[in-house]
Design goal:
alpha+beta, eight-stranded antiparallel β-barrel, Alpha-Beta Plaits
């Protein structure tokens, strides 16, 4: 499957609460309404939390401010999406969604790209969702790579060097699930971005990590857990440009799931 990642910043006229309310109550149902027309298989909104963990991540790494949220959409492949967008109903659906995005998204400070998932620590079955009522939280770590590295080299290091380190310390860090989502260069990305004007540049990719909040607190209070997090931080410095990256914790809202 192919995945579209869309990181969002709100219009300056909106508070985060107002932005997330409109996104969830108005735009989300509109996407769900058009999902079949657009051949979309799954649609999930990831809402940023106002949480002390965000400041802790930023202070330890010198990160950008968190985004207000992230939209994730999945298709079987880009060919199905292109075909859907080529039909009159698909064009109408795409236009209606774009018009509605203008009501709450600051396009110039948001970004989107297609991506491929690379699971690293996975439960069986893969059903973890950080819902509002769940003790789970999801860390979203969007990063750009160091200017000394190429995109290919950075993604290779992330997959082949950093991923195994996280897997090795996953138990000590109490990680429930960890996936890497690698940005893919695709001409369709440029088309979608062009329709939204001057968007911010795509990220190298992002990681998603799920924890039970109490288990994360326990890990941060144990010598083994602290060593795990120190190891992660030290290795991140080998490929992540922190000043151009953003980490935040969030809750997930699933609108469509045909995975």
């Amino acid at each position: 499957m192919i995945r579209l990642t869309y990181v969002l910043r709100r219009l300056p006229t909106l508070s985060r609460q107002e932005f997330q309310w409109y996104w969830r109550q108005t735009h989300g149902p509109l996407v769900a309404q058009h999902a079949q027309t657009l051949a979309c298989r799954t649609y999930v909104q990831v809402h940023t939390l106002d949480d002390p963990l965000n400041a802790a991540f930023a202070e330890s790494r010198g990160l950008m401010e968190p985004y207000d949220g992230m939209a994730n959409l999945w298709w079987n492949n880009t060919e199905e999406l292109l075909h859907a967008l080529s039909t009159p109903p698909g064009q109408h659906a795409g236009e209606e969604l774009l018009v509605d995005e203008h009501h709450f998204i600051d396009f110039a400070r948001s970004s989107m790209w297609f991506a491929m998932e690379v699971p690293q620590v996975n439960p069986t079955p893969e059903t973890l969702v950080a819902t509002e009522t769940s003790p789970l939280i999801c860390l979203v770590a969007c990063f750009r790579h160091l200017p000394t590295l190429s995109l290919d080299d950075a993604q290779l290091y992330w997959r082949m060097q950093h991923g195994p380190k996280v897997r090795a310390y996953a138990y000590a860090a109490r990680i429930r699930r960890y996936i890497q989502v690698h940005m893919l260069a695709d001409p369709l990305t440029d088309q979608l971005r062009a329709r939204r004007g001057g968007m911010d540049t795509p990220f190298t990719g992002h990681a998603e990590v799920w924890w039970d909040r109490q288990e994360l607190t326990a890990a941060l209070g144990s010598p083994e857990g602290l060593k795990a997090f120190e190891t992660f931080l030290e290795d991140e410095r080998a490929f992540i440009d922190y000043a151009q990256s953003a980490f935040w914790v969030a809750k997930e809202h699933v609108f469509i799931d045909q995975s």
